[in-house]
């Protein structure tokens, strides 16, 4: 018996089943108060409030050991851009950030491509590469300080290979900054490897197989298919590395204390702590911290905007 589809009635409720009923405004406010307000309150207390307090201090000459505190307006900010010590720390931080953004990204991508295989050995290697990431920065700094000491393991190995005068990795002002950059890059390498591995596992096999049938070699397949699809992974790694490198303090404090010499490896974050806690110029240190925050926010925002244009929606 044939059924005429045109005469079959469809319940009106079925056509609207997929629509979610809108909550009354009172219920929405109650839901926000229960689920959203606590998170916003924590964010406001531990992020927004300290920034506001720091900005307030930056407009004063606050020094707990030299009262009274006076309002100085933007004088601290004007002094920053004529302060040779701050400009030197800005240059040091920029060089360090550029190295730390490039080296782990390039090395992490290469290692991720090599480890993108199945097997217990590759799983073990992934764990090995990620281990430095979970270690404390202080522990990493102490270990590398011992290894890169003038009589450390690295120089002993170089002497065994016939090098009469191994370089002073941490005592030579020309090498100390680059040594710290390599240490931080080594610690962040595992993070980049894991992110790139996640991106590689999300690349559809059908695309690579189709390109292979069309005669594309491994290099062409990587350049035309894999690399464009890794754009989100590149964005994550670049932004995280940029922020991590620009606010580095603990490695500098443990390894070189801003030396060797004067300001050779002193970053902005290191100068902020030295100015605020050692020199007790907390108003001036707050101005330095606000400038560092603005630089990080602008750099991260511009980087996100540029890299997001490359991303491919699967």
Question: Topology, pairings included?
Answer:
Blueprint: H1 12-15, H2 25-58, H3 75-80, H4 84-115, H5 120-134, H6 137-147, H7 153-160, H8 176-201, H9 205-213, H10 218-229, H11 231-246, H12 250-255, H13 268-278, H14 282-308
Helix pairs in contact: 2-14, 4-8, 4-11, 5-8, 8-11, 9-10, 11-14, 13-14
Structure description:
- The protein is mainly alpha-helical and about 325 residues long.
- It has one domain (about 85-310): MetI-like (MetI-like fold).
- The chain is about 70% helix and about 0% strand.
- α5 (about 120-135) crosses α8 and α8 (about 175-200) runs antiparallel to α11 (about 230-245).
- Residues about 1-10 and about 10-20 have low confidence and may be disordered.
How would you spell out the order of helices and strands? HHHHHHHHHHHHHH
Estimate percent helicity. Answer: 55-70%
Distance between the termini: 46 Å
- How many domains comprise the coordinates? 1
Tally of DSSP β-strands = 0
> Treating each run of at least 4 consecutive H or I residues as one helix, how many helices?
14
- Please identify, by name, the CATH architecture: Orthogonal Bundle
Globally, the shape reads globular
Task: Report the CATH topology name.
Answer: MetI-like fold
**CATH level 1 class label:** Mainly Alpha
- The value of Rg in angstroms is 27 Å
- Structural class call reads mainly alpha
Q: What is the residue-averaged pLDDT?
A: 87
């Amino acid at each position: 018996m044939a059924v005429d589809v045109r005469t079959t009635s469809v319940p009106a409720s079925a056509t609207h089943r997929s629509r979610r009923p809108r909550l009354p405004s009172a219920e929405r406010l109650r839901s926000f108060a229960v689920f959203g307000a606590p998170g916003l309150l924590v964010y406001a207390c531990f992020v927004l409030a300290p920034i506001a307090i720091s900005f307030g201090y930056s407009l004063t000459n606050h020094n707990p050991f030299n009262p009274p505190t006076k309002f100085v307006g933007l004088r601290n900010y004007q002094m920053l851009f004529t302060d040779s010590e701050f400009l030197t720390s800005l240059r040091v931080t920029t060089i360090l950030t550029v190295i730390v953004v490039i080296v782990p990204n390039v090395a992490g991508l290469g290692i991720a491509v090599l480890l993108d295989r199945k097997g217990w050995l590759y799983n073990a290697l992934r764990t090995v590469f990620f281990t430095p990431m979970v270690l404390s920065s202080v522990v990493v700094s102490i270990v590398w300080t011992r290894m890169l000491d003038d009589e450390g393991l690295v120089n002993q190995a170089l002497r065994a290979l016939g090098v009469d005068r191994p370089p002073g990795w941490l005592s030579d002002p020309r090498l100390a900054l680059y040594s710290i950059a390599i240490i931080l890059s080594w610690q962040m390498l595992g993070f980049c490897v894991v992110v790139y591995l996640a991106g590689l596992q999300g690349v559809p096999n059908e695309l690579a197989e189709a390109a292979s049938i069309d005669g594309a070699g491994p290099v062409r397949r990587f350049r035309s298919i894999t690399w464009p699809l890794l754009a989100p992974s590149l964005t994550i790694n670049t932004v995280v590395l940029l922020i991590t490198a620009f606010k580095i303090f603990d490695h500098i404090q443990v390894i070189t204390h801003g030396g060797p010499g004067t300001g050779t490896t002193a970053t902005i974050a290191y100068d902020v702590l030295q100015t605020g806690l050692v020199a007790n110029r907390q108003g001036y240190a707050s101005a330095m911290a606000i400038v560092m925050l603005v630089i990080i926010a602008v750099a991260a925002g511009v980087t996100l905007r540029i890299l997001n244009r490359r991303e491919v929606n699967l």
